[in-house]
Amino acid sequence: MPQLSPRVTDMNDQGSDGWEVFARARAMVEQGIPVTELTIGEHDIRTAPAILDAMHAAAHAGHTGYATVPGITPLRQAIATRVTQRTGVPTKVENVLVTPGGQAALFAAHLTTLQPGDAALYVDPYYVTYPGTLRACSARPVAIPTTAENSFFPTKGALDTAAQTPGAKTLLINTPNNPTGTIYPRAVLENIAQTCRDHDLWLISDEVYDTQTWEGDHLSPRALPGMAERTIVIGSMSKSHAMTGSRIGWIFAPPHVIEALSDLAVSTTYGVPGYIQDAALYALTQGPDLEQEIAEPFRRRRALALDVLARQGTVGVIPSQGAMYLMLDIRKTGLSGQDFANRLLDSHHIAVMPGESFGISAAGHLRIALTVNDDRLLVALETLCTFAQSLTRA
């Protein structure tokens, strides 16, 4: 019997993909059981009608055939202009490749920079798909541990230790961060940049939450000295423009990297549908006002959630400066994040993501997505805190 490739069958180490609680919650919903889902980063307010109108008009105008693989030039130019304005790093059309979403961009970036057996570094906690993406590229995932007490920021020592792994070629970071909501300060990014320069690593920077900054500023590491030539940045319309289902993102990188990625796209995705690119172009032309409008509910809900959490003493919260999530510390209950999440779902029909879904460093934590209306979020958080308090008294 022919066998499947280990690069796919072994993607999920030890058989878990981290989505078990989410899958249980969705199964309950399908059975007609009401569940408050605070699991995935899916906007409760959908794509703006004007963007959908632009997509509809482009499709009816005939932009339904093959589109240019690197992306249509007007969209690439709009992305380059946006990047230049937001990061201060001059960016041109030849620095940009349009991709079918940020996840496809992550896979392509690693497949282009890694050889089979190379070590690919990433920071723990991490977005759920990171290790599987690296294994699918036939790389060896190497997690860089962090601690809640240090806001899950990687230390220079941990970075350098990981960089000394034989065959290390890439370092993947994510700021503003999913799942923790932290934003890497300049000092942390300078340590990361120094590690990449010292050990000749590619830096792959996942910046899909760059419009969701609640405190401080987001600094793209590509803007640091000596980093533009070794940094590959992942961007997306999913979070900034509530276009998750449209699957539209981008990579910006040195021109020779974009050329290689374009060759890869010809043999894999063959580009992104033209009418979706037209809709993305329309969305970008609306400027930062639209981005702020889409981000505002999460800013407001974060403040409401922090107020609830401040009124009790059982559930801790990791300082959050960005993204649509909060990372909660439930170690006082004595339960793992996995056990707490399953018991909360069974007893109160509230679904949250266990910290263990995002790595060992997040054990004993939960990630909540601020993706339901304000009233439901407040009720769910108050219930979660009361449930946690009952466990500490048990």
From TrEMBL:
<protein>
    <recommendedName>
        <fullName>Aminotransferase</fullName>
        <ecNumber>2.6.1.-</ecNumber>
    </recommendedName>
</protein>
<comment type="similarity">
    <text>Belongs to the class-I pyridoxal-phosphate-dependent aminotransferase family.</text>
</comment>
<dbReference type="InterPro" id="IPR050596">
    <property type="entry name" value="AspAT/PAT-like"/>
</dbReference>
<dbReference type="InterPro" id="IPR004839">
    <property type="entry name" value="Aminotransferase_I/II_large"/>
</dbReference>
<keyword id="KW-0032">Aminotransferase</keyword>
<keyword id="KW-0808">Transferase</keyword>
<dbReference type="InterPro" id="IPR015424">
    <property type="entry name" value="PyrdxlP-dep_Trfase"/>
</dbReference>
<dbReference type="GO" id="GO:0006520">
    <property type="term" value="P:amino acid metabolic process"/>
</dbReference>
<dbReference type="InterPro" id="IPR015421">
    <property type="entry name" value="PyrdxlP-dep_Trfase_major"/>
</dbReference>
<dbReference type="InterPro" id="IPR004838">
    <property type="entry name" value="NHTrfase_class1_PyrdxlP-BS"/>
</dbReference>
<keyword id="KW-0663">Pyridoxal phosphate</keyword>
<dbReference type="GO" id="GO:0030170">
    <property type="term" value="F:pyridoxal phosphate binding"/>
</dbReference>
<keyword id="KW-0670">Pyruvate</keyword>
<dbReference type="InterPro" id="IPR015422">
    <property type="entry name" value="PyrdxlP-dep_Trfase_small"/>
</dbReference>
<feature type="domain" description="Aminotransferase class I/classII large">
    <location>
        <begin position="35"/>
        <end position="383"/>
    </location>
</feature>
<dbReference type="Pfam" id="PF00155">
    <property type="entry name" value="Aminotran_1_2"/>
</dbReference>
<dbReference type="GO" id="GO:0004069">
    <property type="term" value="F:L-aspartate:2-oxoglutarate aminotransferase activity"/>
</dbReference>
